[in-house]
Amino acid sequence: MPDDLTQRLVKPDDLRLARQFGALARGNAHRIRLDLCCFLIGRIVDPGFNQFESLTRLEQLADAARGDAASSVSSRVDRLSRVLFEERGFRGDTDTYYEPHNCCLHATLEHGQGMPITLAVLMIEVGRRIGLELEGVGAPFHFLVKYRDPDAGVERYLDPFRGGREIDRHALVERLAAMNRGVGPEPESFLAAVTKRQVLQRILTNLKGAAVRKREYHAAISATDFLLALSPWSLEDRRDRGLLCYQTGQYIEALDDLQQYHEHAAEAPDAERVAEFIERVRVRIAEGSP
To answer: What is the rounded distance in angstroms from the CA atom of residue 244 to the CA atom of residue 277?
Structure first.
């Protein structure tokens, strides 16, 4: 009897990982461990990587960057940047920027390069281990890190993708204003710290896009499952999951997701297109064909 593609479901292991991720990424924001959440995300791309080795690398980097706890915050951050980007050679990946592995913290630790956001998480997590409070900044062009310098009474902004170099705040605001051209939110709003959940959401959105670009639809579905574990009410992710399931022959899953989206987003601009897609999925199920 031929394989019935309409009965294929998402692998139980993928759903288990998504549930684990949701449990770690929700709840008290201060207790969320970015490193552990990112390592779960990494299993979407590389299921068999050694998490213990990745944690050990983070601890070793922290040991190298620790220095004198009595030093000023800015000097300790400078030392952190020097260890990560000069001594250990972490850098932005400009050659294979959109590869899924660049969205994974364990791959950045292993290969020494990544996207702005994975390098930012690296800084934040190593900094946390040595008592530094660094925060992510979701700037439109790419992700940054900031910290409060108590001696100078100012916030300082760093670019992990370019060696952790400091960016002048005034120049940053001017750049954002030029990008907006007077339309949209005030430039200052982009300089606020993002939450850890927002960091994870952005990583997963990047991963989903990277996987779709490579037609790795199962990885894209897993990334979307993680997004839904983080934000179960996200209708856009529910719709995307339905469309991705259709691409992989998971028609019953696709129909369920798309119907949920259409039911709760009947006024959305794409509602008519989704309704047409739902009928197409129903025909596929009725035919029992791939």
So the answer is: 12
Q: Determine phi and psi for 152, rounding to 5 degrees.
A: -90, -15
CA distance 214 to 275: 27
Terminal-residue alpha carbon distance, the chain: 14
The model's pLDDT over 96-112, given as tens digits with 9 standing for 90+, comes to 999 999 999 999 999 99
How far apart CA 103 and CA 242 sit, in angstroms, is: 23
Return the exposure string of 225-234: e unless at least 16 CB atoms fall within 10 Å of the residue's CB, then b: bbbbbbbeeb
pLDDT exceeds cutoff 80 at 9: no
What is the pTM for the complete model shown?
Answer: 0.90
Q: Is the pLDDT of residue 178 over 80?
A: no
290 has pLDDT over 50: yes
Query: How far apart (Å, rounded) are the C-alpha atoms in residues 67 and 44?
Result: 36
pLDDT digits (tens, 9 = 90+) for 194-252: 999 999 999 999 999 999 999 999 999 999 999 999 999 999 999 999 999 999 999 99
> How far is it, in rounded angstroms, from Cα 242 to Cα 281?
10
Strands 91-92, 113-114: pairing kind: parallel
Is residue 13 predicted with pLDDT exceeding 80?
Answer: no
Q: What is the rounded CA–CA span in Å between residue 86 and residue 54? A: 20
**Max intra-chain CA distance, the chain:** 73
Tokens coding 179: 């990008």
Closest to 99 in 3D by CA, of 201, 209, 202: 209
Which residues make beta-bridge pairs with 149? 154
Share of the chain residues as helix, strand and coil, in percent rounded to the nearest 5: 65, 10, 30
Question: What residue ranges define each of the domains in the chain, with the CATH number in brackets?
Answer: 32-191 (3.10.620), 196-287 (1.25.40.10)
